[in-house]
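Hi Prof. W.,

I finally got the (2Fe-2S)-binding protein prediction working! I wasn't sure whether to trim anything, so I left the full sequence exactly as given:
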Amino acid sequence: MENNINSKVLDKLTKICLCKVISKATIKKAIKNGAKTLEDVQKVTGAGSGGCRGHRCTPMIEDIIKQELEKEN
Ligand code: FES
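And this is what came out:
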């Protein structure tokens, strides 16, 4: 339980898309709400549309999608 709370706090503090200041928690929420591809997540969250055009955040978003979809299955 405590670990779960800590990881939730950490997800909020961990910024995945630095350009648009989008947290890991926001990315996970988008996936939970049905986003299944990089394009879906980018469209819903705005991640990847910052100054670096997704150069920094795209690989991390792809990893999170993979992890979250594996958890669902
Ligand atoms: S870090 Fe996401 S667009 Fe630059």
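The two ends are 22 Å apart (CA to CA). Does that look reasonable to you?

Thanks,
D.
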